[in-house]
DNA sequence: TATCTTGTTGGAAAAATTACAAGAAGATTT
DNA sequence: AAATCTTCTTGTAATTTTTCCAACAAGATA
């Protein structure tokens, strides 16, 4: 078992999730690709390792991960959900042009983090910046 | 013309959007209902006023509003987009149980607000807390 | 009025997500 | 080890959400 697979396996145990081969492979993928993949992307990639994998399993598994805090469901893009295997606090930047989601280290997030907002119990804090990424900026400059 | 319709009309002009009757009615609805409605909800409601309204128009219009900053597109719920006509900075709380989106005044947001994150040009800042709302908390208590 | 541009409509298509029932795998009991 | 029970996975079909597109309507310009 590779160290990455072991890492995924252990995280599943820690989160109280039974580590089936499908679940371990999916988490392993998330832990090694910090690209905020969509369900479809996870499915297609893990299919290489498990050719019998079903898209329903991917949906079920990722929802389970989100519930058990093994991964975070990001609802940033306006037409698809994506997932983040990094569960330590950080923010995101979303490029409205190319659709990429980029990690943003954000120290201030621990100050924002609170258990209670107006009497409502908080379990997750999502901070997302939206705009035009560096790459897309320079591309639209060179065109004009 | 009611004061609310006038208000919607003026906001459209300010944002550089031609104020057709459909657009005005849709913005009027957003300005008078701070419930973060989905496209479907906007459609059904405005249909009372404009019986020939098409769902495509609602999609087109709300996307336009979002582009021209007349409203904000919220991608909080995992299976539907919703819209917010209040464009002054504030945060949101999303209840994972009942799905409601509640406004949260957040003074700190102006501190977070920045034009540039890691070289990327920022035009919107989204801060969203997720968890269990007060109402759902007390309901699950009384059941146990 | 004629022409041009912009906005709206409806229906059909595409894409994303969920439901569900059957089968497989793993754990537990006898 | 066989029988039983539970949990997980699969595939298909259905549902829901969103977009596409072509025709029509309305408003602006000349």
Radius of gyration of chain A: 17 Å
Task: Give the strand tally of chain A.
Answer: 6
Distance between the termini of chain A: 52 Å
Order the strands across the largest sheet of chain A as they lie in space.
4-3-6-5
CATH first level of the largest domain in chain A: Mainly Alpha
Strand and helix order of chain A: HHHHEEEEHEEH
Anisotropy-based shape of chain A: globular
Structural features, described:
Two copies of one chain form a homodimer. Chain A is of the alpha+beta class and 144 residues long. The first copy, chain A, folds into two domains: 1-86, Winged helix-like DNA-binding domain superfamily/Winged helix DNA-binding domain (Arc Repressor Mutant, subunit A, Orthogonal Bundle); 88-144, Ferric-uptake regulator, C-terminal dimerisarion domain (Dna Ligase, domain 1). In chain A, 42% of the residues lie in helices and 21% in strands. The first copy, chain A, is built from six helices and six strands; from the N terminus they run ααααββββαββα. Chain A has helices at residues 3-14, 21-32, 39-47, 55-67, 109-112, 134-143; strands spanning 72-74, 82-84, 91-95, 101-104, 116-117, 120-132. In chain A, the strands form two sheets. Chain A has a four-stranded mixed sheet with strand order 4-3-6-5. In chain A, a hairpin with a 7-residue loop joins strand 1 (72-74) and strand 2 (82-84). In chain A, helix 1 (3-14) crosses helix 2 (21-32), helix 2 (21-32) crosses helix 3 and helix 2 packs across helix 4 (55-67). Chain A is globular and about 45 Å long. The first copy, chain A, starts with a helix and ends with a helix. The interface between A and B is medium-sized, with 35 and 35 residues. Strand 6 of chain A pairs antiparallel with strand 6 of chain B. Chain A binds a DNA duplex (30 and 30 nucleotides) through residues 18, 20, 22-23, 38-40, 52-57, 59-61, 78-81.
């Amino acid at each position: 078992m590779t160290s990455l697979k072991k890492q995924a396996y252990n995280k599943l145990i820690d989160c109280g999730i039974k580590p089936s081969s499908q679940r371990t492979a999916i988490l392993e993928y998330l832990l090694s690709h910090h690209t905020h993949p969509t369900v479809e992307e996870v499915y297609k990639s893990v299919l290489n390792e498990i050719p019998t994998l079903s898209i329903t399993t991917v949906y079920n598994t990722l929802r389970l991960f989100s519930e058990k805090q093994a991964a975070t469901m990001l609802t940033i893009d306006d037409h698809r959900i994506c997932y983040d295997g990094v569960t330590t606090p950080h923010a995101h930047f979303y490029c409205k042009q190319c659709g990429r989601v980029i990690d943003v280290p954000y120290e201030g997030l621990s100050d924002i983090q609170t258990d209670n907002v107006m009497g409502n119990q908080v379990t997750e804090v999502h901070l997302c910046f939206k705009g035009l990424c560096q790459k897309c900026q320079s591309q639209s400059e060179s065109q004009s």
